Each structure stands twice: as structure tokens, then as C-alpha cells.
Amino acid sequence: MADPKGFLTTDRKTPERRPVDIRIRDWKEVYQDQEFHELQRQAGRCMDCGIPFCHQGCPLGNLIPEWNDLIWRGEKEEAIARLHATNNFPEFTGRLCPAPCETACVIGINADAVTIKQVELRTIEEAFDRGHVTPQQPDRITGKVIAVIGSGPAGLAAAQQLTRAGHTVVVYERAEKIGGLLRYGIPEFKMEKRILDRRLAQMEREGTRFRPGVEVGRDLTVAQLKSRYDAIVIATGATQWRELEIPGREYEGVYQAMEYLPWGNKQALSELPAEPQIDADGKRVVILGGGDTGADCLGTALRQGAKSVTQIEIMPRPTEERPDGQPWPTYPMVYRVSSAHEEGGERVYAIATQEFLADDEGRLRALKVVETRLEDGKFIPIPGSEHEIECEMALLAMGFTGPERTGLIEELGVTLTDRGLIARDDEYQTNLENVFVCGDAGRGQSLIVWAIAEGRSAAASVDRYLTGRNQLPTTIAASERPLAL
Ligand code: FAD
Ligand code: SF4
């Protein structure tokens, strides 16, 4: 156990964010480093619970009390070994995970949870700094060849596990660079792309082969795919965005979040994109959707120099405390203030958009909205509350409905569920014998931690299918849902 009295003597302390007026002038990450001594004190708050609910909260089953104890003792090398035992990419989850482990932490019943995510992040960063993250090349090559389609966190986790098991793994990605939403969705201020590139370099040295700029189903036909590979892992994400079919959707100035954010990410790195500019500079921006993707649009628009940003949400404002129906250790819907919200903009709740309004040249000039109240699960417009919100740019951040159904998915002939997701059994196997699926494509729009957990588990199934051995760990069965999500 870490410090036996730590949870009584030490208050929770998270790292400071850089001052708002400085950070919105650049694209660098928002958080500052915490003194290692302070981090140790924080890790020392862990009670090493008999039943560590943090484990159940984490889809990866991270061995949290073990590495809390090791960090408290200063045993950094052992700590990273325990962390890597369950998580291929702690530098992604340490920055980006909403940390269901923390909402499940036992201390959270009547005090502030252990800063698990911060201990995770610092453990991996110390390991990179000290050269403890080295390529893990396989002892022998099996001769089996596997295609992983899609290079987001699910595809990358599956590829790393299968490469380390001795298979030859080729990762196909239709975008010009590898990384999926880690590269083109998540803004630089949440995770700098050099963090992704650092891990990709390790994977390349281990032997994983990357083929960006190849759309499977178009540049590589399904017939070629089937003839070349012993097994196929679909990790193509849930990229089909939700539309808002109301009058005026076609006006200039109305974009989907995932049309806007990739452009912003390229702009942040001065990679001058070929696509037309979608720049918020000098504009009044409205974001439709109160979730995390909306917050990413908000932070991007502020950095581009938007005149104002309003984020609107159809749901009522969540409460600041856990609602009665979502007690510990569940992951509650509460009012959260992300770093982007701290930087500016306004959030408006219980409001629905009825129409986009344009000037004579078809350029967006306002949104016509109405206030709503929630009654029996339905949003009822409040008569007389209609009004306009003036803006020159509207960004639709209303989520994703599942994988794209045309192209690869259609040609392969995989079965879909009622929700339009790729159907799989508990072993992540589709209706086709040597075709497996993991991440958002099979699960629906979700989280990085889930994508990694599913990628690891699908890799274990593929390895078993090809070799009949059980050498890779299964993190979670496809149908399993841990306690906290
Ligand atoms: P993806 O990351 O979507 O990757 C799928 C890849 O497959 C894409 O690159 C796509 O181009 C490629 N592809 C598709 N079809 C083909 C084809 N035919 N041939 C070749 N390649 C193909 N989660 C968090 O936990 N924390 C966050 O902070 C967070 N922020 C987010 C911000 C945004 C803007 C969005 C949209 C999502 C965010 N998420 C976040 C969710 C998280 O990013 C996803 O759950 C996760 O990336 C899913 O991983 P994946 O590997 O299944 O798919
Ligand atoms: Fe430590 Fe919290 Fe996990 Fe208990 S639940 S072992 S206090 S991190």
C-alpha cells in the first residue's frame, strides 16, 4: 500500500493549466507539469482497496493501486512495466480519457478521488524521458499476415499486440497520415501530435507496417485484401456523422465538426491544407451540440480568433453534483468545465435550432432557435420563445451514427446490427470467418480507452484463430460493460 495515511493527510491536487490569455495564443497543450514530489504525495492517497473499484471503472482493467504504490515509492521503471501490462498507449489515455476510474474510486464516496489519470500520464512521460520505452520485437515470426484497416487507437492497439506476437501486420489508413481521430479529430491543445508520432516510431521499429493514403475498398479492392491476408481486422471507426436536416442546411458557413477540426489540426501544425479554409477568424460562431466534440470546436475557434462563440445544447443544463439516479461508482452526467470552456465562449442549454438563415448571397447570417422543456423524454418547444442568434459560422457537433455503410463494409458483406454497427460475437469475430472488428466500428461512438481495450482483445482473438494458442491477454469481451460506463 502507498502512504497508509495519505488519504487522510493530503488533499487532491491536479496540475495547473497554463494561463488562458497565453494559451489561446498558441496550440500547445494546456496543462503544466506537476512537481514529481507532489505527484508522489497524490499517488500516496491511494488506499489499496481490498476491492479496487477503480479497476472495474477502467475498461482496460489498469492495475491502478499497484502503480500508485510504485510511484509513491519512486520505483518508476516497475511502475511503467505494470502500466504497459494492460495499456499500450497510456500517453493517450493519460491526456484524453474522461477517467471513469476516478469516478469509481472508493475515496470518491465521501471525498475527492485519487488523481489516477495524472499518475498514469506522468509514469509514461517519465518512461519516455528516461529511454524506458523501447521497441518490443517478437522472438520469432509466425509467417501469418494480417491487415488492420483504420489507424485510430483501436487499429493501433490491435496492430501492436499482433506484431509483438510475431505476425506480419499491415495497417491501412485512407487519410494522408496515421492516427485516426487521434490525429485529425482531437485538437493539438489536448494532445500534441508529436506524442502520437513518438509512439508510431516505436511501432515501426517493432515491425508494424503503415500504409497511409490507401482506402480499402477503393485503392485496394476487397478481392485483393482477401487474397493477401490470413486475417483482417476492421477498425474503421464510427465516422458517419449525425445530420441536422432543417431548412438552410446547405448555406455557406454551416459545417460538420469533423469537416472543421481536421482543418484546424493541420493549421495548428502549419501543414497548409489543400482543402478550402474553414477558419473562424473574426466570425461569430455557434456550435450545435454541448459535448466534448463541441468543446474541441470551441477551443479551436477561440485560437483562430473568433469574435464570439456560443455552444448550444438541446438538453437541460446538468447538475453540478451527481444526480440521485447515477450514484458512485457510475460515471455521472454532471456539469463539467473543460479547459476550452474556461477559455471563453458561452454555453446555452435547452434550446433547439429550427432553421438556418442566410443573406441574399446564401451566406449564413443567423440561427432561428426556440427554447425547449423536456417532458416524458421529448423536447417540447416553448411557444413565443423563438429568437435568432446572429452568426457567420455554425458547426454541427451532434455525434456519429456508426460506420459508413457503403464501400468496404458493403463489399466485404459483414452483417450489421439494428443500430448499424458491425455485428460481432464475444471474440470480436464478424459473420465472416477471418474478419474481426474492434473500436467504434463495432461498438459505436465511444472513447479512446474503449478503442484500446477492444483492439487488445480483438488481437488476442485473431492470434488464437491463427495459431490456436492463448498468448495475448484479453482485456474485455465484446459484450461486456464495466461498472462505471
Ligand atoms: P477512429 O479513431 O475513428 O479511426 C478510424 C480510422 O479508420 C480513421 O482514420 C478512418 O480514416 C479510417 N478508415 C475508415 N474507413 C477506411 C477504409 N476503408 N480504408 C482505410 N482507412 C479507413 N475520446 C476520448 O476518450 N477522449 C477524447 O478527448 C476524445 N475526443 C474526441 C474528439 C473528437 C472531435 C471526436 C470525434 C472523438 C473524440 N473521442 C475522444 C472519441 C475517440 O476519438 C474515438 O472513440 C476513438 O478514436 C475510436 O477509435 P477507432 O480506432 O475505433 O476509430
Ligand atoms: Fe486506490 Fe481509489 Fe483504486 Fe481504492 S479505488 S485502490 S483508493 S485508486
TrEMBL record:
Biological-process GO terms, alphabetical: glutamate biosynthetic process
A single MF term (Gene Ontology): oxidoreductase activity, acting on the CH-NH2 group of donors, NAD or NADP as acceptor
The entry's keywords: Amino-acid biosynthesis, Glutamate biosynthesis, Iron, Iron-sulfur, Metal-binding, Oxidoreductase
Segments forming domain 4Fe-4S ferredoxin-type: 37-68
InterPro entries: 4Fe4S_Fe-S-bd (IPR017896), DPD_II (IPR028261), FAD/NAD-bd_sf (IPR036188), FAD/NAD-binding_dom (IPR023753), Glut_synth_ssu1 (IPR006005), Glutamate_Synthase (IPR051394), Helical_ferredxn (IPR009051)
Species: freshwater metagenome
Keyword Lipid biosynthesis tagged: no
Pathway(s): Amino-acid biosynthesis
Any Pfam family hit: Pyr_redox_2
UniProt protein name: Unannotated protein
SUPFAM superfamilies reported in the protein's UniProt record: alpha-helical ferredoxin (SSF46548), Nucleotide-binding domain (SSF51971)
